[in-house]
Prior knowledge:
The protein is mostly helical. It has helices spanning 10-43, 48-93, 104-125, 127-137, 150-165, 169-173, 188-196, 246-260, 275-287, 299-311, 322-336, 358-361, 370-383, 387-406, 415-424, 432-446, 453-459, 464-471, 502-505, 522-626, 645-650; strands spanning 176-182, 214-219, 233-238, 264-269, 291-296, 349-351. 59% of the residues lie in helices and 5% in strands.
Amino acid sequence: MHNLDKLPSEQSVKAIDDILEDIAFRKKCLLSRLGTATSLLESKPEQVKLFNNTIINSIRKLEIISVIEKELDYLRENLRAIEQYTDEYDKLLRDDQFQDIPCSKYILLLEMLRVRTEELEIFNYFPKITQLIEEWQSDHSVDNEFKPKVLDLFKSVELDVKHLLSNDNCIYLLPYKIGVIGDRNVGKSTLLMNLAEINQFSLMVDMTPSIFSYLQYDTFVYKNPDNNKIIPITFIDIEGAIDINKSQSVENYIELINKADCDLYIIVFDRSFNDHNRICQEYIEKKLGRKCLLVRSKADLLFNDVLLDLTNKKYEKRYTTKYQVKSTLNKLRRYALVTTDGGHLSNKVYLTATICNDDLKEAPFTAFDLNKLKKELLQLAIADFRVARICKLAICASRTIINTCFRRGYVVSQTRYRWLAAGASIIPFLDELPAFFGREKIRQTFGIHDNSTITNAFYRIKDSFEEYLIEKKLTVPKKYLKSGYFKYLISKNAKQTATPSDTDSNQYVKQEPTYHIQNKNPTVQNASLIAGHTGTIIGHTGIILGALGKVADDAARLIIPSSSIALRAISIAGIVVGAVLTPVFAAWTFYYTGKRMNKHLHLLCDDLVIILAHFIISICNSCRESRQLSVLTFSNEDSSFSNADFLSSVTESPSSDEE
Length: 659
């Protein structure tokens, strides 16, 4: 799109208008002079021969100028047409909501195709889940007739994931995705063409920001040597870095790497391994947990340069000896390991050629490591069980079915619970009962609870969904669960409290005190005398208080008649205010009860999405352990699941943040 400014624009049309105006002016002047000369010659015919050549030359000039004027008029119309088509092309690629972003509609279209591709992958690889989606999405029942059940979903997810990870099914069903990345013009497309064995390869004319996304090529040329079965491999040609800003370039490129979501990445470079390549490699290996291979492209050009340094001659089949070739290749491999900061790579680097000259094409070594690289890719495709990708696809599928089939506003008929709560709002806090039973009904409708909480507590029974998850020994960090109804999934590290022994309990036995009835102690006798005087004083005080009480009683008889009238007025005002506010409270309770039920539904769905994610990770890890593969571990900073707040939250290992 940045080349559109090179096409004819308003300035070009204006320039043609200036030329046409100049032509018109000069034609006018020439015609005026020619007309004057012609009129004068009519009166003096003897002078015609003298001016004949000049007149003929002027007429020819006018004819040529007229032809040029017509051509310019035609060109001007074409320029207008070109400008119109370029405007239409720009509008075609630019979305109305994102006018400031070039090619925004094109970008959105690619993103939509990417999402639809993931949906198609889910339909192909998860038949049980797909069957549930087809059955449940068309169902609009409520209450007891509501079909989607969480236990059926969990069992279907388990069957689909285990089927993919068992008996090497994933090797032949899921294509092994290989992403080819690197800077611009390093030979990625040529390498991809050789690896995918594509005869006709369409190269992009110019890799600009308008290209966005990546090119994908599905191949079926690799076969398992043990059984001769085809192993599908998909090559992803990720566009080169184009941003001038280095930090922005790295961020944009990492975003493309995430979107490609490949099982293996090949970093291609034609010069020293730079910082951009190193950052991408570290991100792929440490953050994404994917394997990464390094390829030094254009090795044929570097071979000639190294050979020229050693022998002062380029390669010639007749004169270059085997020793010179061997020495050059050894030095070439050492050069390929050098980084821009003067260090050396510890990883193996594969050498590949681009376009060799006539002499190098016939040389036996010009393939360099291309065949070795193909064998390595085939071995990796056979050994890799795509567990990380299967895990991600299963999480996306489960999240889709939760959001489309369970997260609905008509799961339970809320009207009766809202009316009951509105009627019960007359009595304080009584409206909590209908709201409680409404939320309980949602859990029963989902299949989270088989019976009410009160019934389970009374009969001491567990729900089938709870027993299923406990049997799977699934645990989820406490901070992810918000509804409060999956506490049995939280790992418990409660400290045991010691019970007091029998000997310790004896110290808490109360002993009855003993009293001495006769006590001859003089101190005690003096205390008895003081107590007697004190009793006398208290008696006189009681007489005085009695008199005061009588006076207060007489005063009360005078005040009570006037206060009763005030109390009656207050009571009447309270009744009136209550009668006015009761409908308001009832309406608010009616609205708020429905809001609380909806909020509870969304909290349950959020928890189910989190539980399903950990459930799928647990299944994938169990399959990895059975195959003696490295167990999937996810940290809180892991963003391999791309783009989503939920996915970044569920990628934390359950064992890392248990509470």
